[in-house]
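Notebook, bench 3.
Goal today: get a predicted structure for CLRN1 protein from Mesembrinibis cayennensis so we can plan the truncation constructs. The sequence was checked against the plasmid map this morning, with no discrepancies at the termini. Length recorded as 232 residues. Pasting the sequence as submitted so the record is complete.
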Amino acid sequence: MPAQQKKIIFCIAGVLSFACALGTAAAIGTQLWVKGTILCKTGALLVNATSQELEKFIGEIQYGLFYGERVRQCGLGGRPFQFSFFPDLLKIIPASIHVSVILFCTVLIVFALVAAGFFMFNAFGSPYETLHGPVGLYLWSFIACSCGCLIMILFSSEVKIHHLSEKIANFKEGSFIFKTHSEQFANSFWIILVCSLVHFLNALLIRLAGFEFPFSKSKDSGTTTGAADLMY
């Protein structure tokens, strides 16, 4: 492939990586990871609410990695309550998983920036070391993509398996019990999915630029070396 086309491909990959870093940083600071509705089960049972009357007992909840807001409905109108994970909810949530999600988000930002820098370096400079060449580009893209996948897996398990929304909804509730009525992932969660796909796409762009995958290349060189040794 001509050098000019390679520069264009590397520039595109670098811009995409940089955009992913900014998108992930913006996603961390929002409360748009999960949106849902919560049912005041105790209030609905007290009045034996029918399907039409249940609307008066269904509140809303949304939260991110650091803070969120819930609106409880127990037949007397909505009452908003804002909360933060640190330190308010630290005792009731799976703290190790939650901190791991934040940690991998940070790692994703760092390696997305590193990948963007090396893509630009390869576009306008001359690779002179292995980690500056195609092996490094594959490496940074693979690490960033893996971090994005781990973020989605860990956060999904925290929400679905550990019932994070119900734990938040019942925080500081003595006599009332809340159940999750509906729940879906919001924009910030899908930003992480898009970033993971972008880094996977970057790996394909590297291949499109004419670079072989380093693992298959090293195997061929090892086989050639072994044959040369046998000849001598």
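Confidence is low (pLDDT under 50) at residues 217-232. The two ends are 37 Å apart (CA to CA).
Flagging this for group meeting.
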